[in-house]
Design a protein that fits this description.
3 helices, alpha+beta, 20% helix, seven-stranded mixed sheet, globular
Length: 172
């Protein structure tokens, strides 16, 4: 993967004709009550081992697009992608988190331009959501419910990648 060159002072990383818009985000997750530290391992991410909890994923609603997705956003000029992903989680959800493994990079067109979004798994460690101009709602859902709520197929694939990274079996 080649590094993007910022376009002009203050422009987003990767801007310019033919260059992808560079962004980063996280599939933000938390353990549910009674998980016992098993990392959400269990049937379909719900119920855990021996019925002891599981995991939930945070999804954000963007009123501008009326969609549900994982927290993500454009990188600032010169910003490290992981730093940008963690910044976006804080800005969009109010949550602090611990980053985990890299997840697949999403590549797609947005507003007639190529876009590349690098993702990480990230476990929420605390914080509180306050609605803002970009995100008006955050919900915590089981992996199955998140798959249903997510607007884009590429985001559903990230749920599967997270569950595989955590060693959590999942439903098709």
């Amino acid at each position: 993967m080649t590094a993007a060159t910022p376009h002009g002072p203050g422009g987003p990383a990767g801007s310019g004709p033919g260059r992808p818009v560079l962004a980063a985000g996280c599939v933000l997750w938390r353990r549910t009550a009674g998980d016992g530290g098993n990392g959400g391992g269990g049937r379909n991410g719900r119920g855990g081992r021996n019925g002891r909890g599981g995991i939930e994923l945070a999804l954000v609603h963007r009123p501008k697009y009326d969609d549900w997705s994982h927290p993500k956003g454009k990188l600032k000029r010169g910003e490290d992608p992981l730093d940008g992903a963690l910044r976006e989680v804080r800005e969009e959800t109010g949550m602090e988190c611990v980053p985990g493994v890299r997840l697949p990079t999403a590549r797609y067109e947005s507003q007639c331009r190529p876009k590349e979004v690098r993702y990480w798994a990230a476990e929420a460690t605390g914080g509180a959501f306050l609605p803002n101009s970009e995100v008006d709602r955050v919900v915590w859902l089981t992996p199955e419910a998140a798959r249903v709520r997510l607007t884009y197929e590429r985001d559903r694939e990230l749920v599967d990648a997270l569950l595989a990274a955590l060693g959590t079996p999942h439903a098709p």
